[in-house]
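Re: the request from the purification team.
They wanted to know what the chain is likely to look like in 3D before they choose a buffer screen. I agreed to run a prediction and write the result into the notebook, where they can find it.
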Amino acid sequence: MSRIHVRIADWQADNADLRRIREAVFVTEQEVPPELEWDGEDETAVHFLALEDEFAVGTARLLPDGRIGRVSVLKDWRGLHIGERLMEAAIAEAERRGLRRQFLTAQSYAIAFYERLGFQVCSEEFLEAGIPHVDMERDSA
């Protein structure tokens, strides 16, 4: 039985875990400048934490307009479908809130991952923080 579960996080109470994961994945691994990672939108976002037992290993966020982002899983936990579970939780919460259209900015290498979740590319490739990205969207039926 999987010991991985996803829950809605509290930006204040879970701040250390949310920051630890995003710092490790985006700032350290991918060398995203901290001023781009910490964009001021976290206060109004719904955050999600993936946990193995009680240890936080992944995160994502949903903004009030339906944008999903900051999907990140610590390196040692990749390949366990944690990103998919985070995305499913974010999509379900968006739908629960009546946000029929969800969208995101995907790193180009992850396009197939998001396509499996029903997203479609809706832009040309562009650079963000020096990393190739595309915009993607999905409409809930």
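For the purification team: The chain is about 30% helix and 35% strand.
Please add any questions underneath this entry.
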